[in-house]
TrEMBL record:
Protein name according to UniProt: L-2,4-diaminobutyrate decarboxylase
Origin superkingdom: Bacteria
Gene3D superfamilies cross-referenced by the UniProt entry: Aspartate Aminotransferase, domain 1 (3.90.1150.10), Type I PLP-dependent aspartate aminotransferase-like (Major domain) (3.40.640.10)
Annotated gene: ddc_1
PTM annotation (N6-(pyridoxal phosphate)lysine): residues: K315
Phylogenetic classification of the source organism: Bacteria, Pseudomonadati, Bacteroidota, Cytophagia, Cytophagales
Amino acid sequence: MIRRGGCSETVTRSINNHAKMNEHLKNDLIALDNLLEKVKEQGLEYLNNISERRTSTKNITSGILTLSVNGLGTAETLKQFNSRFDQIIVSSSGPRFWGFVTGGSTPASIVGDWLTTIYDQNTFATQGQGDISASIELETIQLLLDLFELPNDFLGGFVTGATMSNFTCLAVARQWIGKEIGKDFAKEGVSENINILTAIPHSSVVKSLSLLGVGSNNIIKIKVLNDNREAIDISDLEKKIDELRGEPFILISSGGTVNTVDFDDFVAIAKLKEKYNFWWHIDAAFGGFAVCSKAHKYLVEGWENADSITIDCHKWLNVPYENAVFFVKEKHKHLQVETFQNSNAPYLGNPLENFSYLNFLPENSRRLKALPVWFSLLAYGRKGYQDIVENCILLANQFGEFINNSNYFELLAPIRLNTVCFTLAGKENQQKVITFLTLLNDTGKVFMTPTIYNGKNGIRAAFVNWRTTENDIEIVTKLMTEIINKIMQQVIE
Ligand SMILES: *Cc1c(COP(=O)(O)O)cnc(C)c1O
């Protein structure tokens, strides 16, 4: 029985049975109800005022503590955290944090994330006397395949972010290339040159190639289409394929580039796949969510034919960090196991018979990352995500309209989905882009990130947060007008 404000008989008993329990641990155990209540209140305070909290800070944290011998206990530690950090933590999960591609967290996902911490499962096996958390993960993968309208011949799993998802998919692709030329790279190491074809890979793809020993210099760059596009020129792709004279290769395609959210033509690539022998990977970290909008799902048409797909959940799915999935066609599971299996652990059994995530992805021990996703998908359903995605697209277009109608700004690319890539109008103002962005971010009311696109200094605003509204667009466009007017007046004076 739990008495509010106190502790249960079971807790009292366990304390009595544990005479040597550390004093702070003992006191924390007794005060757990109180501690969690305090954190709940503090969490509500953050969430309820997220729109007013600053999006940037110039404060730096003071000093670095040394480890104390006796510790402070949790209540005192919370006070320390609050006095040193709480006030200067920025609202990166709030409605006007448009830098990078930064998602927020839905209420359901926060609930799921809390429970993940409290239950603290180590998620790997689905069979044997282990826990059931891997079954929750497998169920969540099915829900995600449903959301993305993908067939269930994909095997999926959770990793920390799209970087690790790209890494996982490309690791299996690497093993596939080896098989094609009679090598087992997982066992023998990478002894051959691996052909990588891609146009505008995300930086994390390049990083993954370097981690995998493939070498980021081995990329064969494919041309992009004319007319301000970032999508693969299919005829150049076919030309580069022909130059390989039948050698197997890995094609890394984009389901949403970060600057202009351009998509490769997946229908055309699927056709090439009938003709040529290659591994097809799609990095659809945030662009994959186009499928949730009726008007935009054509962008991913044909993607079900890929061998592997990367999706980030901590972006447009709006669950807390660190959360992403990979989807790899199940027919490649032998290659996946060859890459990731724990070779020296007899208790694991046959990895193909006794399914365990630790033989299918980089990590062994893992928290139950699926739970926040499971909660959010059940809580809001297909319609919930359609609403989130379509709202973000609408707001991106409204913001884009402001840019288009302004004399001082101009779009660097058309708005294809949820990101606005723009700059200051006029060549002579190129060197003022960073000044403008710094002043804007310094207001603490909005956060955007700099970029370079087609040789120009630019600014990106990415809309992926469920909380953002038209009112936020108004606040920001007003600020932008004030700041740009000031900058331009200074020039005249
Ligand atoms: C964000 C992003 C990544 C990297 O994702 P992390 O979650 O930061 O590891 C990879 N690819 C694309 C297209 C992205 O937008």
